[in-house]
User: What shape does this take?
Amino acid sequence: MGSQYGLKFAVHLVTNHFGKIVAKVCETLFRKGPLSLGEIIRCTELTPEQVKNSLLVLVQHNCVQAYVPADQFRDEEESTVTVEYLALFDNVIHRLRFPKFLEIAKRQLDDECEKVLDGLLRDGRLTLKQMVERAVQGKENPGAIEAVVRGSFHKLLKAHYVERCPAPEPVVSTLIKAEPAPRKRGSKMAKKFEAPETIEQRVMEAALPGEAIRFAVIEYTGGNADREANSDDTIMVNVGDNSGGIANEGSILWRANFEEFIRHLRHKLLIENERKRLDDGAATILSAILDATKNVEKKVKIEKSVPLSLDSIFTEVTKNEYGRTMTIDRVRASLVQLGCPQRNLDDSYSIDLKNIVEMARNEEVESIVLKRFGGDAYRIFRLLSKSNCFLETDKIAELAIVDKKEAPRLLYKLWKDNYLHMEKLVVTAAKQSRFMLWKVNKPVLWEYVLDEMYHAALNLSLRLAFEQEKDEDLLHVSRDKLTPTDKSGEVNSVQKRYLRLRDVLFLMGSSLMKLDDALMLFHDF
Amino acid sequence: MNRLQGSSSSAKRKRELALVSDTLTDGERVLYNLILSKRDMGIWSGDMKRETNLPDHMVKKSLKLLQSKGMIKEVVNIQNKARKHYMAAQFEPSKEITGGDWYSEGSLDKELINVLKNVCVKYISRQKVVTRDGVLDWSRKSGVITAEVSNQQIEEILRALVLDDEIIEVKSTGYGDFENVPVGRVCYKSKSKGGVRGEPKDGAMSSIPCGVCPRINFCTPDGIVSPRTCVYYQKWLDF
Assistant: This one.
């Protein structure tokens, strides 16, 4: 079974953003897998109009991908084909992260880029023409604004933060490679969050070759953007050479490339974790390596960094202010710290990124164990997690220096809450004896913890809404009445409630964002 | 030499046994020999009854007498503290019975462990980087540790501190802090930088009520336990 609360949380987000009817369609797709329009209407018992509109909304916001199952062509060549719709779990959850994406665009590029991206995130998909129209609306000097928007768009495109939308209704087949990448996300979702029915497997298989096409799109437009970044005045005239000139400015749809943002966030996590674990030097080097190889990475979850020679690492490192203080010996020592004691055969270094992610996951789960079960359990858990094999009860008590009477009780508690895996062993020698063997089964535990996190995120979000609802009247009170104005600094009850609400919203909002980091750590990284 | 010593001690034991046997009844002698034969493992009174087939009251009476003569002693068995466990006076209880070095009177000596832990953490944080031998050397020479503690125990403490995440085990690279340590040697380092105790861990989950909630499996949006009615949230948001 997939992540139960993951789906609940996704449906909750869709409900919040697009209302109950759209959420019902989305939930049906999550629960039943890809469906045709007719099937959705039957399952949801909504009117065809409602379902159609809901699907349009979901497609517009990249939460649903339509496709044509290829086997239809084989069966009946001439007749009309049925389009099926697949809900994209990841893209729904990404909606929670929009503030983070905007922050990245702002930090790495500039405020103007943030505005353009904001438009794309709000509207889902836009043509360049629409983006310009959006910005110009009701403002003076449209010419200047248009130039700024175009410039920002090119910057975003160059940084791969924007991508061309996938084909609207590709044929999914292992023979015809016409599958854009979102299929990949969708299929991953299908594998992870729905029963492994044959249709999902087929979609997943069909999805694989599509990746190349998608990256071709990015390389293509990316290259284009490069060219155009050099000459400010030439606008995206030649974007699609195959589709002909300026006309397509109004027809090519663009959207935010979530994958690139997630990659950026993953890199950030990797670097910050190594900074915390080792030092600034190691972090600088890792950052340089990841920066240099960013465009070569084929997917977000790469296990090892792309191999790079010491010379190129050193060149990259010296681009950074802190890096300039490092000697080549220091760089080598830091590489050793990062876990590359020997270079590969071809004189290149590659860092085990999966290991860093694993350590971060361990730390997150350990902190839960510490808080929920206490120090002794924490030691036991870390012992089992590090040794990564079965250990016997008494041995555990001995190694973790936990009272032998206490250890079985703690182990049982951890097991009961799904944090440990246990097996009974009966030995029949001279005397029959039973042993309890314990282990941390990481893949299973990670999935369990992730589901608990989705549950927690859902709860946080529900409670946040509840708190807002409770003090709704405060929203209609004028602002100057809410902040204490008189010099005595006394606060009346309304102001007190307002201050509390402000603190509550801030705490819950930031907790949700932090929890989202953990969600990404366990799901996307 | 050894053989000489051996034979003299066995002779001594025989003499003692003879002496003892003189003053004991048959039943007492049978019991005593049984207890003696179990050496440092001792034996539970229930097992004695089973093995000797002596009646209950006789066993009780004989044990009392043997104890009053100082020939046997009662020891606490870590496996089952409620059971009366006896051992001949000349033996020290084995590790299986006491639970090991960290146990005194049948329970874990938490105080000793905590003191040792604190002392070690302080030493390591002062030293930046230190090898295991370094810690052992210091523990013997410094005189900080007054209790009788073996090298093995110190090693166990270090291992527990690693599990506590108070210190970390690293391999020397030969650079920086490791300048004086041969490359590849296992070292201990204080967890936080600059020797100050690290800030407590704050995971994303563990800092919100749901992360530590014992009832999360019963919690549903419209259930009896729900985020709207949750008492933990109430406490958390009580500004």
